[in-house]
Amino acid sequence: MAKIWVEAYGCSASFADSEMISGLIVNGGHVLVENEKDSDLSVIVTCSVKDVTAHKMVHRIKSLKSKPLVVAGCLPKAEQVTVEKFSPKASLLGPNSLGKTLDVINFTLKGIRRIEITDTDVSKVGLPKVRLNPAVGIIEIASGCMSECTFCQTKLAKGDLQSYRLGDIVRQVKQEIEEGCAEIWLTSTDNGCYGFDIGTSLPKLVQSVSEIEYDFMVRVGMMNPMYLPRIKDKLLESFTNDKVFKFLHMPVQSGSDKVLKDMKRLHTSKIFHDVNHAFRNRFYKFTIATDIIVGFPTETEEDFIKTVDLINETRPDIVNLSRYSARSGTKASQMDQIDISEVKRRSKTVFDLAKRISQERNEEWIDWEGEVLFDEISDGIIKGRNFAYKQVVTDNKVKLGQKFNVRITKATQNGLYGILVS
């Protein structure tokens, strides 16, 4: 029996992987500890989607290599050479190789390095887990994607789309709720194409999950706009269930169709605009989140202005902003890069615009009163979400997993503040 420390970075799928790795560790007879200082071995579940993230991963890997180490997640699959350069003794575990977790850990504890980055797992549904948050069940519904974006390493790490069976996912959701979860996250590399490879679809999954006869909420995770025209109408219908948060995360990345084509995004700005309009027109106070990349190698000033115009027209509640950074192995990394000072200028313009819109959108909620599910502890504060997945904080004492009626009294760009009402 060994003492093992697990830490994770990146998207919700990466955190779901860390929960399953922890579950396999405990089932294998080992013990999880609360910090790396008390551990016999550390596991780091990595992310490689951005250059700045990869640098953070490398720094953390270097700081952990004094003890036996397993580097898991996307980085060892997408950039094996980079990991081995900074931690040559570390064992490697790919994002689709979780079934090899115990083998890798047990060999590493004996001083034998193992590399398991080949895709070997048929499904991650049903694996044991140790939850990071007892109120939230994170369920991966697929691995990989159907896209080949020129700037992204995710395809290199996770490969082609591999959807998990709808019935298996529904059974996993039931189990999560029976074990005390009040909120379910459906997550994958790209939820929008879920089921295309096995004859089903995201709307069918959302409908099936929301029909489960328990009291819980569902957050539907990120979906790229290119597949939404194919499922939009049925997805709108599936979102009518009160258990589904009125929230969409659609990464548009650019407002320029030329840049989107260079990115191989396979959607247009009009598709994003139309889906945004459809959901906000159908539902009261619907929340839209998107991602924007500024400074892509082929982005001209005219292209950038189109991005600014799209943000002004669609007014997303949340903009996850990234400065373009070349990622090893991607086609865009081989293009001529834009001067960093210009990328910074464009980034600041979008940041300031998105900040103002978020503030204005959140101020529309002042004096709203309704039910809030308190689902997260951050910096010692319990935070909640309303039906549109808006973050809500109150000074009243609440417990994780509880629901209360709240009246909103204040808004910032990051969320809402309110008081409990009877």
User: What do the pLDDT scores average to?
Assistant: 92
Which stretches are poorly predicted, pLDDT < 50 over at least 5 residues? none
Strands, total number: 19
Structural class: alpha/beta
- The fraction of residues in strands falls at 15-25%
Q: Spatial order of the strands in the main sheet?
A: 2-1-3-4-5-6
The assigned CATH architecture of the largest domain is 2-Layer Sandwich
CATH fold type of the largest domain: Transcription Regulator spoIIAA
If helices are DSSP runs of H or I spanning 4 or more residues, what is the number of helices?
13
Oligomer: single chain
- First-to-last CA distance: 50 Å
Radius of gyration, CA atoms, in whole angstroms: 21 Å
Q: Look at the structure and give the CATH class of the largest domain.
A: Alpha Beta
Domains, number: 4
Largest sheet: 6 strands, parallel
Provide tags for this entry.
single chain, 422 residues, alpha/beta, Rossmann fold, Transcription Regulator spoIIAA, 6-stranded parallel beta sheet, 19 strands
Would you write up a description of this structure?
α8 (202-210) runs parallel beside α9 (228-238) and α9 runs parallel beside α11 (269-282). β18 (403-411) and β19 (416-420) form a beta hairpin. The protein has four domains: 3-116, Methylthiotransferase, N-terminal domain (Rossmann fold); 133-245, Transcription Regulator spoIIAA (2-Layer Sandwich); 247-364, Transcription Regulator spoIIAA (2-Layer Sandwich), CATH 3.30.750; 369-420, Nucleic acid-binding proteins (OB fold (Dihydrolipoamide Acetyltransferase, E2P)). The chain is built from 13 helices and 19 strands. It has 422 residues and is of the alpha/beta class. A six-stranded parallel sheet has the order 2-1-3-4-5-6, sandwiched between helices. Strands 15-16-17-19-18 form a five-stranded mixed barrel. A three-stranded parallel sheet has the order 7-10-11, with helices on both faces.
